[in-house]
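Retro notes
What went well: the complex prediction finally ran end to end.
Inputs used:
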Amino acid sequence: MRLVKNLFVGISAAALLTACGAGGNDQGTEYAPNMYHSVAYEPYSQIDDWEAGRWVTSIEYPKLDSVTEGHAEYYNSNNFNPHKMNMRDPAPNTVSRNKQGWLPYRLGKDSLAYAAATLKNPLDSTASVIADGKILYETYCDHCHGAKGNGDGKVAGGAEGEGIKVVVNGETKTRNTYNGIANLRSDALKGISEGHIFHVITQGKGLMWAHGSQISPEDRWKIAKYVKTLQK
Amino acid sequence: MSSDSRFALLVLKTDIEPHMIKNFTSACKFFILVFVFAFVSSTSSAQEISTDPAAIKAGEGIFNANCKSCHKVKEKLVGPALAGVDERAPSIDWIKSFIKNPPGMIASGDAYANNLYKDYKPTMMTAFSSLKDEDIMNVLAYVKAKEAEVPKDDVIKDPVPGGENTEAGGSDLLNLVAIGVVIVLLLLVVTLALLISSLKRFLDQKNLNEEEKEVVHSPITLKSALSSPAFIFIVAFLVAALGFKTVINNLFAIGVQQGYAPKQPIAFSHKIHAGDLEIDCKYCHVGVTKGKSATIPSVNICMNCHNQIKEGAQTGASQIKQITDAYANNEPIKWVRIHNLPDLAYFNHAQHVVVGGVECQTCHGPIQEMEVVKQHSLLTMGWCIDCHRKTDIDTTRNAEYYDKMLKIHAEKKGSKAPFKVEDIGGLECSKCHY
């Protein structure tokens, strides 16, 4: 009988402990939680619940006003930003400069002709620049424009232009494809300048949206160099 | 009439047109020219849109290479739908000259061209001066053929090639193996039973006394089996072992979030985007090569595609609408963070992806197959250290820097000693804890 009792205790302990593991929506039990949560603002870890972690709070955070107590341990948001976001806008009237000291690109979307005629690629056509350009092209461009620039990437519907078939609840459906993807090797685009390519990546053209926020200016120039080699 | 002379007429026409509005006589000249032109057009057999399959095929190639990005046959895209263009436009020759030089046609004051431009301003059609007349005729043949095509909205019945079939094959094999094992076990039982009965028969043939007979023919009942010490021991041992294993496993799971797969505000599927469509991870997670955080894409990156794609094959419009709404209202989307390193440990994505050349999948698992992202790795210190001990350093990519280091390493540990991350300080406490 003692054996049965022991077994019962062991099994219930095990059952209790299963609540510690993570899975699905359950994050699991944290060990030493006040060492896990950052006091300083951390990217992508915003907790905007003022009372979160009150039970482990060991520091007296400054009072919000004369009545409201300081925030609890886990709270990690900027009260003064819209949506209490942690990130901050750059200081007003300042411009960012990159490693090369370049100023931000200022030509607007409608200045394509001017950009195409005047912008010069500051990078040389070295093998390493073109190799970098290839990697960047395969990251940012080829799912639409295709590996060879024929406008036949998977998002454009693939080489047949028919899109990708998927089975949803036993029914075959086609994934929607993005319209208006340029064939970079068409005769009309063969002659475009690197400045043209740079401007279109930055600001978009036709149905293509601006990609300036994703790709740094230097990388855009590298892609422009590589696209010119594709067009040969 | 050769195509060259028609072209000459066109040039003449363009030259005259700017004066047309102001000057009646020029207008007369123009009309005469147009008349001559029309006459030439009607007599020329090349103006007939061909129904020849070869021409349609050739036209399809040219259309896909040059026109597809802005035009569809039946729907408006960047430019107008091309169906019926041969009847709509002033003439076939007008189409030809417009395709070759749209800005010129507009500047020349051509009424139809200007009306067209007014509808699509500020988009100006690209000039396709390299297209020959017969190319354009082939494109028109293709457009005409496509126009007549009945839309096929029937569902494709073929099964999807790839994935599923191989999976089915794999589970078939597993079933076969299981059936085989069961058959072997059954055979074993039958053989043992036969063995016992033959042994009993053999003993029966000997002259046994009563006691011995009882032993040979003792009945094995369920009760006697259940109360035998061997059975109790086995059961108790199994239960205790299982319980012990569960306790240990769960104690180790404290503070480890492996398997965490929270429901996100939008049912975003990595399987669709990274798997089926082969969009590079870095297209959206742009920070991964630049800094500590891989970054969650801002809504404008989603909108690069979802400005157009508003309906998903799996979820319809409901999920994508949340993105477009967030974009329209300038509201952030509150994604749930899955991979949480404690604040006491520092981790940098760029260092691992750019310098170390580690693939995303090494730590995040088969993300391209996940409908809902789940934490694949342990993210414990032991897990980090294990990788730092096992991973070789690729010294070729920065040979200049590593050459000296390799020399010192060889002097200290011998020329054949492996050069792992731990050898460049991958196990130092203060690299991650400070």
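What we learned: Helices of chain A lie at 2-17, 33-36, 112-118, 127-140, 142-145, 187-190, 194-203, 217-230.
What to try next: split runs per interface for comparison.
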